[in-house]
Amino acid sequence: MNIIEAVIILVLLVLLSNVLGHYLEAIPVSLIQVTLGLLWSVIFHITIPLETDWFLLLFIAPLLFNDGRRFPKSELWTLRGPILANAVLLVFLTTLLGGWLFHLLIPGLPLSVGFALAAILSPTDPVAVTSIAEQVSLPSAIIHLVSGESLINDASGLIGFKYALAAAVTGTFSLWSAAGDFLYTSIAGFVVGFVVMTGLQMLREVLRRSGINDPVFNTVLQLVGPFVIYLGAEAIYASGVIAVVTAGVLAHVSENRIVEDLPEQRLLIERTWDIVVYVLNGIVFIILGDELPSATKATIADPATGTWRAIGYVVVIWLILFILRAVWIYVYGTLSRLSKNWRIEHKNTEPVTVKTAIVSGLTGVRGAITLAGVLTIPATISNGDAFPERSLILFVAAGVIVLSLVIAAVTLPLISRRGAMLLTRGSQVDTLEELTAQEEADDGETVPLMSVDEAKTYLSKTAVRVLESLRRPENQRAAYDLILDYQFIIRRLQMRTQPSEDVKIMIDFEVDIRRIALQGELKRLQELHDAGLVNIWNFRYYRRQIKWRLRNVDAHQRREALPAWRTARRLIRHGLRRLRILMTGNDMVTFRQQRQLVETETAKAAIARLSRFFKVHNAKKNAQQRQSVYHLIVHYRYRIERRHPVTNGSARQLQYETNLRDLRVRALAAERSAVTELLDAGRINAVMAANLRQYVNYSENVLMLGEDLQTEATS
């Protein structure tokens, strides 16, 4: 298959996997991606040829750089000892002890290959680790420990894998030579990452001071950075892995010093990296599924292994890794608490219990880095012979990845009292933001905070209040347009945050008030026809439209047609009406005037009906019902404003656009103030406040982008 076609299909499968993951929330997206890759390979008999060099460059460099960018700076220094111990000593212990046990477990597996397998199985997925740790309420120190460790053990595991793999390929290994080579590659990789990243940061500052501060340019520059750094380190035989991790951490640490960056630049960079990680992580797991048939076939066909024995190897190796990790966490945590420094720095932290150690062991979910590394194992060794047990190694590594995901997905809801899901690299950003909705107080008790959706609802309601206060006769159309947009946002957010019983009550109430409004429209339309103000064509058309809406309301058919289909249907009907008017010899001007009259008068009648209902009904006492009535009234008021007579079309449109822009700016300012109010009141934490400000900045950037496009179109 052509490489371009393969890339397009892989990206489409990634998109499909996340669509399926939306409906199958209990199943990690990574498992869905593996399944899709497997089906693709089995049905179409397509395999993707893998080259070690480009595979490491394409996947390892950006993923590790992004991990470094998200490294927790404060926890890095506070827990530097435990993090480095877990990331280096635990990986070293797993490589040696685990590799030796794998060698004993699997007949014919060379010791060097066992070391390579253990080393590449050591790294854990940082997003999966953090999501599990936070959702099962681990002690804060353990959360920071396992999340910080998972960001470094990628590098240490890949380095150990590199040397063990080299020993397996060449058949020779010298401890002193390896130690010297390790020191050189590590130090040189650190220097290359530090120097090149510093140079790129200086280049950005020089260009910015020269007036070259384009967000797109800076985003592309940062995206190219990890590839340049990785290639530069590998060119001098240094560790490209350490280089990109160093560069990512340095980019994160120096981020706060670059105060002149535009907000849209930060937003664009973050979202672009989200897209890159989203796509690359998904492609890696789809490639795993694509490689499974060949690995499975070779392993099952081997009479010395067989299906059940290979599956047994997977289970036993996962147990070995789990036990090593859980024992290490318990022993190291217990010994650390005995030290004076630990007691001083973490006097309020809970002791590491057996349960904590077991849960920490379950956080050892293997992910994209393990998979990317194991897929680079060569087919032959230096003398031309086949690499020993390559298919079995691929089968075991893939099996351990899948098993770790399945076990975490099954045990997480059992351990956590809340509904929980397992996240991995590439998970949706909005889901990750939900994890920041709780923080721990100084006394160790959990303080309930607003969820992201609740906070966004508060922001939108604040904007609506400001828009209502700014509404004047000259800007009513623009004000109602914006209020209607905010009302749709509020309604969608409330549907997601309300319990299902409350949602049903709210929907039933909205059905009732919509029926009342439509009955008012129908009565007023009949009055207009009886008075001779509307001809038979318009009367029949609008009566048919209103009765159709009434039938939908009475049948509780609340699912609207697709917007694209509604637009096409409206254009077709408008064309047919226009043709009919021309064929019957009627006047188009009269037709438009009657149409304007009908829509204005029926909207006023609906508002009058709703106002009377609101006065006699107890909706005033219910905030949700009051909000629903207000939303429907705003809808009709906007329809009235939209149908005002147009005396000077171009001038009126220009005034509308000016009002819309000014009101939008005031509404965004109100949203920013609301974020500060929530933060000062303790309803949100600092992380969520930053996310909400980014959300508001995004809305403002979209507004600015629309103005720029409009200016370009008119110039």
Describe the structure.
It holds the Pfam family Na_H_Exchanger. Keywords: Cell membrane, Ion transport, Membrane, Sodium, Sodium transport, Transmembrane, Transmembrane helix, Transport. The chain is mainly alpha-helical and 715 residues long. It has helices at 3-23, 29-44, 52-69, 73-78, 80-105, 111-120, 126-135, 140-170, 175-209, 215-235, 240-253, 263-301, 307-338, 340-345, 354-362, 368-374, 390-415, 429-434, 452-470, 476-497, 500-530, 536-554, 563-584, 588-616, 623-642, 649-680, 686-714, and strands at 438-440, 446-448. Strand 1 (438-440) and strand 2 (446-448) form a beta hairpin. Helix 3 packs across helix 12, helix 9 (175-209) runs parallel beside helix 11 and helix 20 (476-497) packs antiparallel against helix 25 (623-642). The protein is elongated. It starts with a helix and ends with a helix.
Short structural description:
By secondary structure, this protein is mostly helical. Helices cover 78% and strands 1% of the residues.
List the strand order in the largest sheet: 1-2
Largest sheet: 2 strands, antiparallel
Helix content: over 70%
Number of helices: 27
- Determine the N-to-C terminus distance: 46 Å
Query: What percentage of the residues does DSSP assign to strands (E)?
Result: under 5%
Average residue-wise pLDDT: 75
